[in-house]
Amino acid sequence: MTVLLYDGVQLLDVAGPVDAFTIANEHGGRYVLKTASLTGDAVHTCAGIVLEPDCAVAELPRDIGTLIVPGSPDWRPAILDRSLREALTELATGARRTAAVCAGAFPLAATGLLNGRRAATHWELVPHLAHRFPKINVDADSIFVRDGTFYTSAGVTSGIDLALALIEEDVGAEVARAVARQLVVFLARPGGQSQFSVRAQVRHPRTPALRTLLDHVTENPAADHTLDSLARYVGISQRHLTRLFRAETGTSPARFVEQVRLEAACTLLVSGTDSLDTVARHAGFGSPETMRRVFQRELGVTPGAYRARFSTTAASPHQHSATPHDDLLPVHAATSHQNHPRRPAQPDQQTSSHSGRSKTARHT
Predict the structure, then answer these.
(1) Which of 129, 132, 203 is nearest to 145 (CA)?
(2) Packing angle between helix 253-271 and helix 208-219, nearest 10 degrees?
(3) Residue 237 DSSP label
(4) Residue 339 within any structural domain of the chain
(5) What integer is the mean pLDDT of 272-300?
(6) Are residues 186 and 91 in the same domain?
(7) N or C: which terminus of the chain carries fewer CB neighbours within 10 A?
(8) CB atoms < 10 A from the CB of 179, how many?
(9) Are residues 175 and 259 in the same domain?
């Protein structure tokens, strides 16, 4: 597994996935992680921190298992850098899979390899990616997208979500869950899930009482959230609350409460094994039937079907790769439980021993 470094990269785009794969190694995975820059020289991140790569791109094998392409907040120099485009084209063409994190979609798009494919990026950069590369079907909402052997993710921390999905694809859900627990992140953010929570999607209200109410509902989806109880909570009339809610958030109190409960139910379904009755109660729906009706209306699937599809990090079960990746050795039987047969995989070329210089992401 190789992370391609270049000047201006976002530090977390590099560190997030690298840490996830490193922790996976502590739970039975055997990833070989390597960083490379165009010349082998150190690069400066957008935060000013210097990263020293393990090698130059020319020293890499041309059949690497996974290529990670971090992004840069200032994506324009990256797409104009001919040497970077040529190196990325060669590496991505030879890699078994290529994963771009956040604005990493831009230099990857500049190679033409994403033409005709779906791709995600940071929500702020969606219009720029769509305008600059009109042949790409830009997904403005998803946390990460897989199209063939190409993976692209949304903003910054979603690179960890993507890494978890790749770990699960390689060595199973149990290892991915262990990594997520150690990183203290939500495991169950499937690729198709929105980049934004319900609370973040509504317009930011000007009235302090209304902001307090939104937080109250979000933090306590199972509480009594009738219009009367909500009005009493902030000490205003039901009629005034309804007017205020619509004017400042663009939605109604009932609709907001329902969306918060739907989001809570989705999280409970994919992150645990509680019964549908328990999930419905904890999410605030009261009964499985009420929850089922909302799921059918809003998502077009039943809660059970949603759990079956998204109970892991993967975007959808049928998208799991049928072939292993060269940067991974098999793990013990307890964690290697794919639904398809596997042939023994080989690791990426081992890195040489430390030369005394500080290396970033050198793991074997």
Answers:
(1) 129
(2) 30
(3) -
(4) no
(5) 92
(6) yes
(7) C
(8) 28
(9) no
Question: Is 271 inside a domain boundary?
Answer: yes
What is the overall mean pLDDT for the chain? 82
Q: pLDDT-based confidence at 311, cuts 50/70/90? A: low
Per-residue pLDDT, 340: 29
Burial class for 333, CB neighbours closer than 10 Å (0-12, 13-18, 19+): exposed
C-alpha–C-alpha distance, residues 91 and 38, integer Å: 11
More confident residue, 39 or 358: 39
CA atoms lying within 13 Å on the CB side of residue 71: 27
Same domain, yes or no: 166 and 228 = no
Q: Which residues, in sequence order, are CB contacts of 352 under 8 Å at separation 6+?
A: none
Please name the amino acid found at residue 301: V
Residue 68 β-bridge partners: 3, 99
**Mean pLDDT value across residues 234-240:** 94
Longest dimension (CA), the chain: 71
Token reading at 342: 């596997």
Tokens of 289: 């039937």
Residue with the bigger pLDDT between 333 and 45: it is: 45
Is the predicted pLDDT of residue 314 greater than 50, yes or no?
no
pLDDT exceeds 70 at position 260? yes
